[in-house]
Write a structure and sequence with these properties.
Strand order of the largest sheet: 3-2-1-4-5
Mean pLDDT: 90
Low-confidence stretches: none
Order of helices and strands: EHEHEHEHEHHHHHHHHHHHHH
Helix content: 55-70%
Number of strands: 5
Length: 376
């Protein structure tokens, strides 16, 4: 059996890393992915969390039987001895200084291997992609969560959002104590974590779009005056059952318990409840903020990214996994056709101007796909 090692910090594991894995598996029967530690960097995620991200990504792509995962901070040559895998996979980006650095590293590893009486070969995989873990984290720090969906698997994106959405509670929602804020966010994570689509990645999409809207509207990204809207975004899918017709009503009702547990008093609870109910999309909004949250909730329909659209459609199907293929096909087509029958999908001028045409194109193509392609 031909085995190779692919080692790195993978903080987090990106689709660039996955591309290297896919290429390596064209030449090797088994690939050992080792999560190590970069001594120059403090990792965002623990080794266990990074292993889980890789495991879920590999499983999603049906590669789990071909990959072995481990976490070892030792020298690569010692990992090679331990696993009896004497080829080291290294990814390099085109038009970068990676090759020079990797050749230097290859020489050092070869010398260390000789001391141990083994021959360690290097296999370089060149990729066009500029995706890196640092790029992903940098975009998250800027609040550009939507772009990151093109660079990581859905499970990884969800874990990133658990980290990068927490500051929104500090900047836009007032708590008396830090521990109360932490407890509330833990509650939010537990509510949203199990879902394929209506999860923190969906919340992040809405918040990212809200930033874009604010910059377009006023030239800045200040959300401090929109604390009720931000809280409504976090709460609008707090209760969610894919087969239930009253998730929005239950989420709005849950706000009272949330208020008693974490806030003691919300001056505008009724307003926040109405914002949550506006995401039911069963009637026209009564004011600008209700129209805005409704459009934010549907904004993914107008995505120009094929990757994001495919992720969205796949994730929605996963949330209806208990529904038969034929029932899902009929139900999903009916929902999508209702959107097309509306005079406008988006109620605000900004979202209508920017995304209405693309949303209708995406929906029409998805209906055509559902009618012709077998549904799993």
């Amino acid at each position: 059996m031909k085995k190779a090692i692919f080692t790195g910090s993978f903080d987090p594991f990106t689709l660039g890393h996955l591309g290297i894995v896919l290429d390596a598996l064209q030449s090797y029967d088994k690939l050992i992915i080792n999560v190590g530690k970069n001594s120059d960097k403090l990792p965002l995620f623990s080794a266990e969390e990074r292993l889980k991200m890789i495991e879920e990504t590999i499983r999603e792509y049906g590669l789990f039987s071909k990959v072995e995962l481990m976490a070892d901070n030792g020298l690569t040559v010692d990992i090679a001895l331990k696993t009896k895998a004497f080829t080291l996979i290294r990814g390099i980006r085109k038009k970068s200084s990676d090759l020079h650095e990797e050749l230097s590293l290859a020489k050092i590893n070869a010398d260390l291997a000789k001391i141990r009486g083994i021959n360690l070969e290097m296999a370089f995989i060149t990729k066009d992609s500029t995706i890196s873990s640092s790029t992903v984290k940098g975009l998250c720090q800027l609040g550009e969560f939507i772009a990151v969906q093109d660079y990581v698997a859905p499970f990884v994106h969800q874990k990133l959002m658990e980290v990068y959405l927490k500051p929104y509670l500090r900047y836009f929602i007032t708590f008396e104590r830090e521990e109360t804020r932490g407890a509330f966010y833990g509650d939010i994570i537990n509510a949203y974590r199990p879902r394929a689509y209506h999860n923190l990645s969906h919340i992040a999409y809405m918040l990212n779009m809200l930033h874009i809207y604010q910059r377009y509207l006023s030239g800045n990204r200040d959300l401090s005056r929109l604390s009720e809207l931000v809280l409504a975004i976090f709460m609008h899918d707090y209760v969610y059952d894919s087969l239930a017709p009253d998730n929005e009503e239950k989420s709005a009702k849950a706000l009272k318990q949330i208020e008693q547990s974490y806030f003691h008093s919300l001056a505008n609870r009724e307003k926040i409840e109405n914002l949550i109910l506006a995401t039911k999309h069963d009637k026209l909004a009564r004011n600008d903020e209700e129209a805005l949250i409704a459009d934010l909730d549907l904004s993914i329909l107008g995505t120009f990214s094929e990757t994001t659209w495919q992720w969205y459609c796949h994730s929605i199907r996963k949330e209806y996994a208990t529904v038969s293929s034929e029932d899902y096909r009929a139900g999903r087509i009916a929902i999508l056709e209702k959107f097309l029958q509306r005079p406008r999908i988006f109620q605000t001028e900004f979202f209508y101007d920017k995304f209405e045409r693309q949303a209708r194109k995406n929906i029409q193509e998805e209906i055509a796909r559902l009618k012709t392609v077998p549904i799993i």
